[in-house]
Amino acid sequence: MGDLKMQRVLNLLFLQSARPDHDFIMSRLKARLPKFQDQVKVYSIPELKEEHLLALGPQVLSEINAGVINHQKDAVRLAIKHLPNLRWLNCIFTGLDSLLSPDICDLIEKSNVTLTNARRASSIPLAEFSITSCLYFAKKIPQFDEWKRRKEWTYTTVDDITKKTILIVGVGEIGLETARMAKQGFRMRVLGIRRRFLDQTLPNVDLVGGYAELEKWLPEADYVVNCLPLTAETRNLFKWEHFTLMKRSAVFVNVGRGTTVDEEALIRALRDCLLYTSPSPRDRQKSRMPSSA
């Protein structure tokens, strides 16, 4: 990063399959980096293929000092191989576990490239998704969708999430933003679980505890939001016994890494109607469950 500051020129290449909106990207960059003024250049390639990268020409390739990637490992390999003055790669996602295989880690370590993630970039979108998922079931949206499909209109009552209890597991950037929306928007009682618990207080969180409090607080929660990153400690952290502790009416929302949840246990909990859940729509098996969305 020091080299970039000294050059005061950012030549940025998007190593992604989808072509970015250059005007939007450049406007955001200039807003964040006003001192660069017109010294920001953005390049892209139509597909993540070596021939497309080489088509930029040796002059451009030698000028590029920063790149934007997703989870494609080939993007890292191609960037380090063909961009001699590359100093910075930024992944557009927060979690890097699927990207950082041993060979990629070794490649980055041997290069002069700094790899960063998009910490905070997903905080608001995923917090909004978490609150939306709570409202989705409280307001019986699946039922209304089914009635609409059948052209049936039946009287029913809906629930409120205001003043209900939400348990946020993994109170990092996403968890804190979820807590803010839950507390300030809906006056919810917010319980927070985090690994590094040092008898601390957190904004918009009523009680903060470590993993030891998880089983104690699960029965109290109307909504459980998993925001955990994937580490050796968090892999399959949510197990069958955790789902059995939740209220039958509890909503489980996972905006953390998928493998922090024992998938077989989650499917079994859904099959046995232990809870409502808002899983990834890509998981067809879970999405067919009647208590899922």
Structure overview:
The chain is of the alpha/beta class. The chain is built from 13 helices and 11 strands. The chain has a 6-stranded parallel sheet, with helices on one face. β1, α2 and β2 form a beta-alpha-beta unit. α7 packs across α9. The protein is elongated, with a radius of gyration of 23 Å. The N terminus is likely disordered.
Residues in β-strands, percent? 15-25%
| Main β sheet profile | 6 strands, parallel
- So how many helices? 13
DSSP strand count: 11
- The proportion of residues forming helix, as a percent range, comes to 25-40%
Name the helix and strand elements from N-terminus to C-terminus, one letter apiece: HEHEHHEHEHEHHEHEEHEHEHEH
Shape annotation: elongated
Provide mean pLDDT, rounded.
83
Q: Taking Cα atoms only, what radius of gyration do you get, to the nearest Å?
A: 23 Å
End-to-end Cα distance, whole Å, is 43 Å
Widest sheet: strand order? 8-7-6-9-10-11
Based on secondary structure, the structural category is alpha/beta
Residue stretches low in confidence (pLDDT < 50, at least 5 long) are 1-7, 277-284
